[in-house]
Amino acid sequence: MGSVVIVGSQWGDEGKGKIVDWLSERAEVVVRFQGGHNAGHTLVIDGKIYKLSLLPSGVVRPRKLSIIGNGVVLDPQALLSEIASIQGQGVEISPATLQVAETTPLILSIHRELDQLREAASNGKIGTTGRGIGPAYEDKVGRRAIRLVDLQDTAALGPRVDQLLTHHNALRIGLGAEPIAASAVLEELDAAKPVLAFAAPVWRTLNEARRSGRNILFEGAQGSMLDIDHGTYPFVTSSHTVGGQAAAGAGVGPGALDRTIGITKAYTTRVGNGPFPTELHDATGELLAQRGKEVGTVTGRKRRCGWFDAVMVRQAVEFGGIDGLALTKLDVLDGLDRLQICIGYELDGERLDRLPASTADQARVVPIYETVEGWGRSTKGARRWGDLPAEAVKYVRHVEELVGAPVTMLSTSPERIDTILVDDPFRV
What we know:
- The protein is an alpha/beta fold.
- It has twelve helices and 18 strands.
- The longest helix has 21 residues, at 154-174.
- The termini are close together.
């Protein structure tokens, strides 16, 4: 029995979907604990592709309980649409297989519109997906959010909506948009009521599951360097993306989390704006993007590509309490004669062993590289260490040394079976 937390150790898009799906076969409960429908997890199961944004990855597997925790912000229409889409692929979803925390804050049209209005008016764009996630988190912290449980009491919704619009309409007018009528919001909330069928006190469900010895998998979205506190602020998401958030975002104690695994790409990518010290603006960067199919699942935006940044991943390991790595997309590096790994930064003549906190300094650091030998033989589809070229094994071992965490899983293709398991995370 064990509880395993999966997080990204970079800027997201590390391949969490496949790893979570692979581990969900060993888990009985799979939990989303932060973020919104800006996550993009692609699963390939028996040749069928499932693309999930809000639903936990375990939802496509039979006899698994999927949970959306209170740390998530929930777009009701996005959830209902995703459920319909996945059911259209032959997956049955019901309150017996999916529970949503009754205290989850809702994303409404006013949040999406505010997100887009702000991004359009900003000179220094953050690169938001425009889905209303940030504004919904703001309302949660500002104690004016409409939560899923509020939909049960229609009579009490009027005053809550009035309070919400006092804030939002002032912002809308200031941004040159028309104010919203309370009746429009109430109509939208009425259309969201079907989601109530999935509402539950998930904190109780999870604690009962743990007491009964069930394996629980906590699935994070985005990546550690997009964390609202620890990431490359302000080019970050609006939630905590580190493993510790699994406890608060689902309703379990920190002692209930046994291991934290950091999904880590064998090179580095980033979507949208923000600092990226090892970014490549050359043919190698284009090659990585082409081979790795580096296009955002949710946004459709092309990902920026660069060499592996060991300094950044080591930092994520330390502040995120990552116990081991699941290294993905090693096969994308096949055939490159020489590889470079960032082992430090230089800033104004000084060598740094961490990414500085200052936004201005993050944009000015120059990577210090170590060159390592590549490999000519393909690693694609390898399922044993013995199937890998010696140089590829050396690369993996060097990554472990540089970031201070062992590689517990190694992925060599999008197919779930093409995985080398070194240490089962559920073995605690």
